[in-house]
Design goal:
The complex is a heterodimer of chains A (282) and B (287).
Chain A: H1 2-23, H2 28-52, H3 63-72, H4 74-109, H5 111-125, H6 133-140, H7 144-167, H8 172-180, H9 185-220, H10 229-238, H11 242-270, H12 275-278
Helix pairs in contact in A: 1-2, 3-11, 4-7, 4-9, 5-7, 6-7, 7-9, 9-11, 10-11
Chain B: H1 2-37, H2 44-51, H3 62-73, H4 84-115, H5 117-132, H6 135-149, H7 154-177, H8 182-190, H9 195-230, H10 239-249, H11 252-283
Helix pairs in contact in B: 1-2, 3-11, 4-5, 4-7, 4-9, 4-10, 6-7, 7-9, 9-11, 10-11
The chains are: A mainly alpha (282), B mainly alpha (287).
Chain lengths: 282, 287
């Protein structure tokens, strides 16, 4: 009972604090603190409710249990991280996004390809591509190569469609100006069209970053060596070691957010001129 | 539309040619191996016909997949466990349920975020963070846990679909509900419109184009969620189960036919929303 009161108290305190804080003039710091308070509140409520209702740790471990497990199994988590994120997701991400980017530049040069490939690309981008995972695991074996292949297939089309769209983002006035400078195709591409495409490219990269992790993990459900985040999750679920599963989820969440956040920072540095970056309230 | 027809046709034809070519290339090892053991020399045409008709090819040729789909949809009773329609229906029902939950959750979160400043500042960052968590990775756990609590069948899969599909709806609806400009909002104020009148007569109608666009993304995401949600349940029923069973037994044709059917399902669901969008927006005078 005490824990339930604790959870309720935390909720009132946390939400109350945010109500007060959000009434103040928005600053950079405040827009960081408020979500952090909200997140901490949720975690404490989770702790309180699980303890209060005495939920079995097999169903839902408390955050403190997960933290202890996390600290105790860092070597396993690191091994899985290297296998899944560095070898599988990252290499696939680089290959997939890189080749999509290059193909987009080729497509952009030939309007015929553009009209033909874009509808097909849009169609494929909406398909459940994760389903390709078992096939690719069959082709490339159980190790990280097949995971990278799944990631390549998953990130390729969103990246392609976004880049092609971005390359058309410069308007005809700007292109005419380049023409009056007698700029060649390549200097127009490098100095006008690629910079103008960057907001779209980063949009594609952000979508691809979340897809890459998902692809690498789900591909491991179809067969993997005895390490890797997907492998660990599916075997630990079988052993009902849910605290380890949650520790893996924490790793995945941190990696996913860091990846996304890193791309967002890079985007701000590269596309500082774009309205969506300039017109910040704070 | 007409302008795109010929190029699209060319690209699709090229894809099929590539597919057939890749089938010859990938399956030739097995064909050569077989020929060697039988001590016969393979001519090129024999090689091609063999690679296009193996039982468990590395890459089945399109016509093999088409025949398999025809056999498992049209020639089987719908209630049979071998009917792909049956499996597609299992997946479809989870998809639609999750999609409905996700749309409701997403829309109500968006309304809260637009009308409540505290919620905007505390919840919105977490909505975005929630999508950087590879939820599909958690799918097996959700299924197992919900099973242990006694919730099984459709609902766990629908929960995963919901988690994937609420995000595009929140983001799209927040944008949409905020799309009326200051002039229009001022106009409502001069009419002394109440908050609910402003919502029902200005903000909601204005958000419709955004709503439908995010529904399309949500539907595709929801289908992926349902398929992955079927993987850990031990491959009982559904398109995801067909994928898993196919990969266990090396039945590539079965995998491909499930995959193609999933693609058809995704395309038609998104297509239906597209039609709804066109009709609704036309009646509202927005398209």
């Amino acid at each position: 009972m005490g824990w339930l009161v604790f959870a309720f108290g935390i909720w009132v305190a946390g939400w109350g604090m945010n109500v007060v804080l959000s009434r103040r003039a928005p600053t950079r710091l405040l827009s960081l603190i408020i979500p952090v308070i909200f997140g901490l509140t949720l975690i404490l409520i989770w702790e309180g409710i699980v303890r209060g209702f005495e939920v079995s740790p097999i169903l839902l471990p408390t955050p403190s249990d997960i933290a202890i497990k996390f600290a105790a199994s860092t070597s396993i988590l690191w091994q899985d991280f290297v296998q899944t994120v560095i070898k599988g997701a990252l290499s696939g991400f680089i290959i997939g996004c890189g080749s999509a980017f290059l193909l987009a530049i080729v497509i952009d040069r030939y309007p015929f390809l553009q009209r033909g490939l874009l509808p097909v690309g849009n169609f494929v981008a909406a398909l459940p591509i994760v389903g390709m995972a078992p096939i690719l695991v069959m082709w490339f074996g159980f190790d990280w190569q097949s995971k990278a292949a799944v990631v390549v297939v998953m990130v390729f089309f969103p990246m392609l469609v976004n880049t092609v769209q971005g390359l058309q983002a410069s308007d005809s006035m700007q292109r005419d100006l380049m023409q009056t400078y007698a700029a060649s195709y390549w200097s127009t591409l490098l100095k006008l069209r690629l910079p103008a495409a960057m907001p779209f490219v980063f949009n594609g990269l952000k979508i691809a970053s979340t897809l890459a992790l998902i692809g690498a993990i789900v591909a491991e459900f179809f067969g993997s060596p005895t390490r890797g985040m997907g492998f660990r999750i599916s075997t630990s679920v079988g052993q009902l070691a849910l605290d380890l599963v949650w520790a893996e989820i924490v790793v995945a969440a941190v990696v996913g957010s860091a990846f996304y956040g890193g791309l967002a920072l890079l985007e701000r540095a590269v596309t500082f001129w774009h309205p969506s970056q300039r017109s910040r309230v704070n | 539309m007409k302008q795109a027809f010929f190029p699209v046709l060319t690209v699709v034809t090229a894809l099929f040619v590539l597919w057939y070519g890749a089938a010859v290339w990938l399956n030739s090892d097995w064909a050569y191996d077989k020929a060697k053991r039988a001590n016969v020399e393979l001519s090129f045409s024999e090689l091609v016909s063999d690679t296009w008709s193996q039982d468990k090819p590395k890459l089945p040729a399109p016509h093999q997949v088409a025949v398999e789909i025809w056999k498992t949809t049209a020639l089987k009773k719908i209630t049979s466990k071998r009917s792909l329609i049956y499996h597609a229906w299992v997946t479809l029902s989870a998809t639609l349920l999750g999609f409905a939950f996700g749309t409701i959750l997403g829309t109500s979160l968006a309304v809260g975020i637009v009308y409540n400043r505290t919620m905007d500042m505390s919840v919105m960052p977490w909505v975005i963070t929630s999508q950087t968590v590879p939820i599909l990775a958690v799918a097996p756990m959700i299924i197992v846990v919900l099973n242990a609590v006694g919730i099984s069948g459709l609902l766990p899969k629908a929960m995963i679909s919901m988690y994937l599909s609420f995000f595009p709806v929140v983001v799209g609806m927040v944008k949409g509900l905020r799309s009326p400009d200051a002039m229009q909002l001022d106009q409502m104020r001069t009419w002394h419109a109440s908050a609910s009148q402003t919502f029902w007569r200005l903000r909601l109608p204005a958000s419709m184009p955004y709503f439908f666009t995010s529904l399309k993304i949500a539907m595709a995401a929801s289908l992926v969620g349902a398929i992955v949600g079927e993987l850990p349940t031990g491959a009982v029923a559904g398109l995801g189960a067909r994928l898993l069973a196919g990969s266990y037994y090396g039945q590539t044709i079965q995998i491909w036919s499930a995959l193609i059917l999933a693609a058809i399902l995704a395309a038609s669901l998104v297509g239906i929303i597209g039609v709804l969008q066109r009709v609704t927006l036309k009646r509202m005078g927005m398209a």
